[in-house]
Amino acid sequence: MKIGIIGMGYVGRAVEASWLGSQHSVKFYDPAVAGSVDSIDELINDRPGAIFVCVPTPSSDNGACDTTVIKDTLKSLIGNYSGAIIVKSTVPPDFWLDYKHVHNLYHVPEFLVARQAIYDYLNPEFIFVGGNNDGHDAIRIIRASAVRLTVPIITTDLVTASLVKYFMNSFLATKVTVLNQYHRLCEKLGGDWNKFTEMIEVDDRMGSSHNQVPGPDGQFGYGGACFPKDVRAIINSIQAHNVSAGIIEAVDSANTQFRGTE
Questions:
Q1: Which helix (H) or strand (E) holds 106?
Q2: Has this prediction a pTM greater than 0.85?
Q3: What is the pLDDT at residue 161?
Q4: What whole-number distance in Å separates Cα of residue 138 and Cα of residue 129?
Q5: 201 and 225 belong to one structural domain
Q6: Mean pLDDT of 28-44
Q7: What is the pLDDT of residues 132-158, one digit of tens each?
Q8: Residues with active-site annotation
Q9: What's the chain's Rg over C-alpha atoms?
């Protein structure tokens, strides 16, 4: 089977790794290198069994998710390609409202740490498949790759798959923010931070992830490729639908202070 990948950032490279060393062949198209999606027909004409969309969705000046590239990509694919279109790019939930009629389109959110993206992609803790049908085609494609599938696989609609991705990132960003605030208090009072984290991790409800202060990058607050971008994008999306984003706005504001970027 031929596999197409559009976008060759760390997510696209992780997807590529899941097909290496197999009988399947991979063909790439990178809009960032090509400068546009105008030549995507070459990939479509190669008739791959599935196309993974891993294009960037950066923050715009107002914090909203810039969906320009993914919109152009899907416009080129939908109606011109009949195989499974599997979107790995992160886009706000309301983005998918315009695609409820597309039955070969799937959103399979990625949950990767950039510095270990390939390992995380090959060894997921769960897989969520959003689509306008039962997700069978997308699951069949993923099963043919080297991704470890002895994990829960849950199918849902496009909007819900996106909501879950944003919830997880904004919730963990909130956890990081609260822990950073407690770290400051702990230092002021002369407490033992290492013992503090050891004790909270005894409680399964707290979990052991994202408890490191300062973070893996040696800085306070949260950084990386996803959390700042996704927190601001979901705030923008929430506000656009007249829902209160108070807690998440406070998290973003606090993180700006922790990172010293005000």
A1: strand 105-107
A2: yes
A3: 98
A4: 7
A5: yes
A6: 79
A7: 998 999 999 999 999 998 999 999 999
A8: 226
A9: 20
